[in-house]
Amino acid sequence: MFDYLYRRHSQVLCNSIMLLLFTKSYCIHCMCLASLTVSHVSPFLWYFYSALPRACLIGVPLAVWGVIKERRTWPIISASLIFVLVYSLLPHKELRFIIYTIPLLNVTAAAGLTNLYNTYKKSVLPMHALITCVLVVSLAVSLVFLFVSTMNYPGGQAMYTLHHKVGRTE
């Protein structure tokens, strides 16, 4: 009798252990495969054709103009571009990884805008109007992106609903 119970319990124990090991290895296998296939793997140049233009908006053409016309911006822009190139080697790309380069690109864009202003300040179209248009367009596009991002983030709607429900109960 004891032998039968021992074999029976040891078989249940072995089956339980095998099931546990199989399930754990299967879960690890699925997590590894999911992280490799579903993670946000982007092409090598994604930062240059998608992330930086969306982050800098009108600043990108002005930064290019600043690099062309102002040699003093070359060390700034080269450090920034080397940083972005190094991060481009990683398969997983997000804007938060290269957000530190945007102020440097804005400095280069400011140098380009200053060069445009000094070059064409006596033209028919006043440069103040052009600068104002650039800033207004950049602000408008930023506000549109802000509105779209609020629709993309469901947690914002949840917090809004929570604050209105809590505000009504008080």
Structure commentary:
- The protein is mainly alpha-helical and 170 residues long.
- The chain is built from 8 helices and no strands.
- It has helices at 2-38, 46-56, 59-69, 74-88, 95-98, 102-120, 127-152, 154-169.
Key terms for this structure?
single chain, about 170 residues, mainly alpha, flat
Q: What is the fold's blueprint, element by element?
A:
Layout: H1 2-38, H2 46-56, H3 59-69, H4 74-88, H5 95-98, H6 102-120, H7 127-152, H8 154-169
Helix pairs in contact: 3-6
Overall mean pLDDT stands at: 78
The total count of strands amounts to 0
What distance lies between the first and last C-alpha atoms, to the nearest angstrom? 69 Å
Biggest sheet architecture: none
Radius of gyration: 28 Å
Strand and helix order: HHHHHHHH
Q: What percentage of amino acids are in beta strands?
A: under 5%
Low-confidence stretches: 24-38
